[in-house]
Amino acid sequence: MKEENKENEQQINVELSEEMAEGVYSNLAMIAHSNSEFILDFIRLMPGVPRAKVKARIIVTPEHAKRLVAALRDNIQKYEDQYGPIQSSQDNEPTFSFPISFGGPGGEA
């Protein structure tokens, strides 16, 4: 039975260019959704600068968004098991109000 599962598994080769491997720093994420997709905007907000730029926009299906949340939850748990609890600074951060709408209810993270 295990051999059957191995045959059914697909192996995916993922390419990562040097430019993409450098990554993009983001310290703010805005999330919005429609009936068919979730839009995740990753933003770099600099202290004292009134404008912030979206550095990356990722659009995913609702199913993939749910899998992403589960994967993040799993990785956060593994991180905290290894390094200790992550301290949340949400209580000390200012509240932001962005007049951006993607046609449906939205949220911030």
From TrEMBL:
Residues 84-109 are annotated as: Disordered. Residues 85-95 have a biased composition (Polar residues). It comes from the Bacteria. This is DUF3467 domain-containing protein. InterPro entries: DUF3467.
